User: What shape does this take?
Amino acid sequence: MLLLKLRQLKEIIFKKIKITNLKIIRILKVIFSRIHLRLLSVDLKIPNWHLNATFHAREYKSKVIEIIHKFSSYDNCFIEVGCGTGDLISRINIEKKLGIDIDKNVLSLCKRLHPQIDTICVDIFSDFNILKNFIENKSNKKITFVVMINWLHMYSKTKANLLIERILSINNNIFVLTDIYSRPEFSIKADNKVKHNFNHLTNVKWHLDFKNIDKVRDINLVSNFVPEEKIIISTNKNLNM
Assistant: This one.
């Protein structure tokens, strides 16, 4: 009995040591990634939230990437609207991809970090045809994956709904992935967190929700087509949410 208890105690201690080590490693990554961004952007006007919200500082970002990779393949087309410094788009294993952002300084930093990524500075609300033309003119791509993370919450339901409807009306098979601030009351700054729901829009033919991505947000995936059944089954089995 004593030997069994000692073994159990050993396992508990080793597990706690492992967890502690992982936390320390993550903290170090957060610190160094923030320092790295500040060094690279000394001559640019970059909002502090971009410099602080690095990949390792925001655990939901790894979950977003996992979802994208489950529903996409290398020969798809990937577009990130609001790509910022490129945390997500740089980690997506898709051949043809485009980063879009409204802030030219942030895009300059993105290009310094990831010079291989194509980017364009545009406001898709006022210049939607640039996005539309890119999707329609891409060559031999089965599916276009449009991602909009951590900015759509600043816009009204009417404006956000219209944008999603316009994207899904393009003549192409399209996934749109967004984060939904389902629990804005737990956000540090709650006054600009509009809670959206795109599942019931006219052009949505299929949707899937990923709950509790973090304490404030869920993930909403909608499309203007019905994915192959094998993709849906495989995703339900393998996603670790």
About this structure: Residues 1-40 form one domain. The beta strands are 77-81, 96-101, 118-121, 143-148, 173-180, 206-210, 218-223.
